[in-house]
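Posting this for the archive.
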Amino acid sequence: MPKKKNIFKKLIQKYTLILLNEDSQEEQFSMRLNRINVLVIVALASFFIIATTVLVLLYTPIHDYVLPSQKQEEVQGKQEIVDLTNQVEMLEQKLSSNDVYIKNLQAILSGQVPIPKIDTSGGNFSSSVDLSKVDLNPTEDDLELRKNVEKEEMFNISSSDNQDSGTLLFTPLKGFVTSGYSTEENHLAIDIAAQQGEAIKSVAAGTVLFTDWTPDTGFVVIVQHQMGMISVYKHALTVYKKIGDVIKKGEVIAAVGNTGELTTGPHLHFELWIDGSPVDPQQYIVF
């Protein structure tokens, strides 16, 4: 009991808190306190600080930086859904474009597209290329190649009557054949390596049926000629023609490029189709 009484006496024992002016030593403030008063003041101050902090976190913008609200989580979730929806729409558009491209190409290569009648008697052809900026004069190699091809007379796309669409097939590109025609490897074309930007020319007179960009083969040009023949040019750097253009034999239609995923360098992927079936271009053209 004496110890408890001593503790109680200490708690109620009065103390005086005096503030003095350091220079004049005059009393500025004084307060009589005991230990119970000090404990009460400390408890009230702590409660006030805690309550103020809670209120600030709950009802001020600081809350958004410290504790994410349910609304923020909902907004983030909605934004993720919107992003995923946009990605799905983009994929659907790409898939739809690829489906249209495949259907059009199948129709062209199977001969379902009617062959347009081309009047070459007057020599008037429309062109979407500014010929003043394109050098169409044959080089010495082209002249020599023409002579060799004319001597061999490997293939003639004109009829035996009076069609004068231009005798032999024109070499689309002078270069090095890096990959030949092979049905076993499912490579129904030949690859011709050349410098990027070099002119690609049409093998014969005809009408442009397709010009577009595809993920695998880059820029593609498809030209339909007489006698059920179709020529296909892939991986171009740029295309100078549009669908429906009537072109002459040897006219520049594109430039050598390295576009598309299925390419390892600047080259021309050239296909030749007759009556809906692929043929080896090297059987009809000297490269």
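The helical segments are 2-12, 35-59, 62-66, 70-109, 140-152. Residues 123-128, 153-166 have pLDDT under 50 and may be disordered.
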